[in-house]
Amino acid sequence: MNHIQKGLVFLLCTIVSLLYKVDLSAQTVVDSLKRVLVQPGLTPEEQVLTRLKLSRALLSTNRKEAFANAQVALSMSRSLKDSKYAAQSHSSLVSLMYGQEDVKRVRLQLDSAFMLAEQSGDPYTLENVWYRKGWLENRIGKPHDAVKSFQQALKFGEKQPPNSYATSIYYNLSAVYGDWDDLENQSRYAFASLDAAKRFPDPDDICNAYQAIATSYEHRFAGDSSARNLLDSSLYYNRLAIQYYLENKNRISFPSVLGILALNTANLYAEYFPRSYRDSAQHYLRIAKEIGVATDQQEIIASSYGMQSSFELADGHYDAAAGLLLSGLHTLQQSPTPDNNLMAHFMSSLSEVAEKKGDLPAALNYAREHSKYYAAAFDAEKMAIAKKLEAQYQAQQKEQELISLQEKAAFNKKLNIVYVILIVACILALLFLFRSYHFRLKSTIQQQALLEKEKRDAILQVRLKEEEAKTLELEKQEAALQAQLQSEAAARLQAEQQLMQAQKEQLQKDLLAGTLQVEQKNELLQTLQAKLQEKSGDRNLIGQISRMIDQDRRLDEDFETSKTELENIHPEFFTRLQEKAGNSLTRLDLKHCSYISMGLTTKEISSRMGVAPKSILMSRYRIKQKLGLGKDEGLDAYLMTVAS
Length: 644
Known about the structure:
Order of helices and strands: HHHHHHHHHHHHHHHHHHHHHHHHH
Largest sheet: none
Radius of gyration: 46 Å
CATH architecture of the domain at 584-643: Orthogonal Bundle
CATH class of the domain at 584-643: Mainly Alpha
Structural class: mainly alpha
Low-confidence stretches: 1-26
Mean pLDDT: 79
Number of helices: 25
Shape: elongated
Helix content: over 70%
CATH superfamily of the domain at 584-643: Winged helix-like DNA-binding domain superfamily/Winged helix DNA-binding domain
């Protein structure tokens, strides 16, 4: 269930990146700035900057009041001579309005900020606006443009005193390169973020820089899990960030950052360390939960419950896992706008636990709830994608308009020079020639594009035909291979049949030889019996010997009969037994085995063989030992298997 915690950590990191720039502890900043605003003699410029700082400080606690202060700052800045104050006000509104307003309106705020920043020419304001442009581009799915904007912002900030924007820019660049799996640049910008944060010591910036470095080491370890030093480095910077937070918690703007750091650290212990480190993971989960409760961050609390439930589930404690998941779900439901993706993850995990417990109705209900929340999340994602596409379209439109305006301005400038030098008739002629040339060039370009398209289509058709020919050849080869396999299978079957026939003929020969031996022995016994009758000295001894001869003859007859019957059923029966016993089975043992394989009971076997049932049991024990069968293996079952 770590996917719940990972998804939640990603969401929380996104929230932190949205609310990243605050200078002091939120409550301390709010109180301090409000006191500054009521001070007498405050200039309009100072009031604007103070309200913008107050807006940023209120961002995580009271978004509505933060927006109101930014609007007041914008209204006041319009009356100021220097346009940099209005540019900074519009830039602040970009982050405040994103996610709450239409993206088109956000773009309008950014365009206004750019226009006013360029009018002011202030490098710090231009750095601010270019950073905000990259920030917005990264969130609407244009990371390549965002990187260019961030680099442009850094150029404006090169000659400026250390400020928090440099830290934010490096932090965002590290995140973008991390998404691109460019681990070298991700690590480089993460350390650059820390260097910038130390030059402009802001506790929030330093905490986030440590977190960025820890994330870069984690990504590098994911690419090379044998390098345990990378994992140790990730843990070190996570713990360093937590320690720094605890030492400066009165100056931290967003206490929820500690919850995210604790969750990241707990996840590293849970994912990459053995179970003996679970206490360490639990320790950081407790920190995350305490911070979540203190800052009313339901997502952090729910994530802690979800991760704890994964531990219980791994130990087979399904009831405890379900209880923790329900607690996390209840916590999420307390949020004014619970995230549908997280709700769907929790429902999926509850369904999994219920299924393992055998509670299929509950599992089905949770699965249905998962489908409902997943559908809602999917619809929201589609809406977000649509907004991103619209924003991209609007951005392209704005860029085209900007290019058009720039071209028009350049043309007007040239036209003004031409007006001074040439007469109106010449200017009109030049304009006509220019437009004519433009249309001819456009027509030529279109024709070339059409020819290129036709050429590509022809090449594609040729490739399709070649692929079809290759496919047909492969089908033919496959058919030939199938035919060859069938032929080999038929040959193998014929060989097996011939082998079985040869074995049967050999067994018949062996049976015939045995029968001849028995007949020869019987003749010998009959001769011996006749000689004994002639010598009638001791009648009792003669009677006993005669009975023994008769009994042996009957055994041979019975054995030959049963052996013939068994040979007709399974020719290899006696051969397999002798191979298993190492040719240690006697004729009586073989007879006993044949009776057992025919399904006769102990009583029936003792009757046929003329011995006591106890003797039959002893014989079974000896046969089992000769065959090397274990205590748990039954003689009857084994003989049935051999006879089948």
